[in-house]
Amino acid sequence: MVAKSPSAGKSAALLISICFALTACEKAPSSSSDVPLTEVGVVTVKPKSVQLSSEFPGRTNAFLIAEVRPQVSGVLLKREFREGSNVSAGQVLYQIDPAPYRATLARAEASLGSAKLLFERYQRLVQTHAISQQQRDDARSQYLQAKAVVESARIDLNYTRIAAPISGHIGRSTVTQGALVTASQTTALATIQQLDPIYVDITQPATTLLELKENLTSGQLKSAGKGQAEIRVMLDNGRIYPHPGTLQFSEVSVDESTGAVTLRAVVPNPEGILLPGMFVRAQLQEGVSEQALLIPQRSVTRDTQGKANALILDDEDRVLQRSLVTERSIDGQWLIRDGLHVGDRVIVDGIQKVQPGMQVKPMPVSEVPTHGVNTIKSDAGK
């Protein structure tokens, strides 16, 4: 039997004591008061007064378009306008060589004079029965035909001066001085577009048209006359166009293949800011909602079915999940139709760190500031 040294016994006792102490520490429950609560940013739902409007994408089109073509053939002597300028209806744009048409008119007038004298002589002779009634009628017919030839020659001579059919902005000329043009040519010499007023065409589903008509009838849309609604145009750079227009609901047809309709708005364009083909957004002014509930868009999540949800806090600062019905967006905020009430506290920041049932520490955050009038945008056309 081997004897143990006193130092070895003390070391073993110390080791056993340490093990017991570590085991006791692992089994000791930690106090819940030592775990800090997760901080989340919240906003309190408050009613607001907002001006509602619907916004639709559209493109501008010229109010009138006229392609300038020759009605007689000939050589162009000169062009009377500057490309890219504004022209007035009746203004001479091109001059075709009139010499051949003057000669034709002179011959026609000479033939007319001869036919007139013959008819007048036969008119007297038929009264004395010196000639037959048939001869007199033939002379009258030749006289009327000669008059028609003169009138036709005069019209052709006038057509050598090619005038603008409408007032508007004229583009580039496709021909130059000395070019030969023909009355049957398909290529236009130039194109004139009337840009004041100008059209804004908006393509929307037929259901949107029905809804807009109902809102106009009920007075929810601001009326600009019978069957018309007032619109504001937002330019592509985000600025509001200064002149309001009118959206017309008459003579609208549905595209059978797509079920869409094209609504046409007439907008004044005195400064020529709007040009054909520009992309704009048309805003329809609706009524004022005095008790609108708005929350930041970042506080709303979507499930796999696309339904909106938000996390709110109860009286004990515990997280609850609430289903929402969103209607429109405005400057980073959602207009809530259903699911929230005045005074609800909605979690905005820290959503990823919490789950329903957790107790959290709420920290108020400032709401998204709005500038000027609160204009709410609809999702139509997106």
UniProtKB/TrEMBL annotation:
<feature type="domain" description="Multidrug resistance protein MdtA-like alpha-helical hairpin">
    <location>
        <begin position="99"/>
        <end position="160"/>
    </location>
</feature>
<dbReference type="InterPro" id="IPR058624">
    <property type="entry name" value="MdtA-like_HH"/>
</dbReference>
<protein>
    <submittedName>
        <fullName>Efflux RND transporter periplasmic adaptor subunit</fullName>
    </submittedName>
</protein>
<dbReference type="InterPro" id="IPR058627">
    <property type="entry name" value="MdtA-like_C"/>
</dbReference>
<dbReference type="Pfam" id="PF25917">
    <property type="entry name" value="BSH_RND"/>
</dbReference>
<feature type="domain" description="Multidrug resistance protein MdtA-like C-terminal permuted SH3">
    <location>
        <begin position="291"/>
        <end position="353"/>
    </location>
</feature>
<dbReference type="GO" id="GO:0022857">
    <property type="term" value="F:transmembrane transporter activity"/>
</dbReference>
<dbReference type="Pfam" id="PF25944">
    <property type="entry name" value="Beta-barrel_RND"/>
</dbReference>
<dbReference type="GO" id="GO:0005886">
    <property type="term" value="C:plasma membrane"/>
</dbReference>
<feature type="domain" description="Multidrug resistance protein MdtA-like barrel-sandwich hybrid">
    <location>
        <begin position="65"/>
        <end position="193"/>
    </location>
</feature>
<dbReference type="InterPro" id="IPR058625">
    <property type="entry name" value="MdtA-like_BSH"/>
</dbReference>
<dbReference type="InterPro" id="IPR006143">
    <property type="entry name" value="RND_pump_MFP"/>
</dbReference>
<dbReference type="InterPro" id="IPR058626">
    <property type="entry name" value="MdtA-like_b-barrel"/>
</dbReference>
<dbReference type="Pfam" id="PF25876">
    <property type="entry name" value="HH_MFP_RND"/>
</dbReference>
<dbReference type="GO" id="GO:0046677">
    <property type="term" value="P:response to antibiotic"/>
</dbReference>
<feature type="domain" description="Multidrug resistance protein MdtA-like beta-barrel">
    <location>
        <begin position="197"/>
        <end position="287"/>
    </location>
</feature>
<comment type="similarity">
    <text>Belongs to the membrane fusion protein (MFP) (TC 8.A.1) family.</text>
</comment>
<dbReference type="Pfam" id="PF25967">
    <property type="entry name" value="RND-MFP_C"/>
</dbReference>
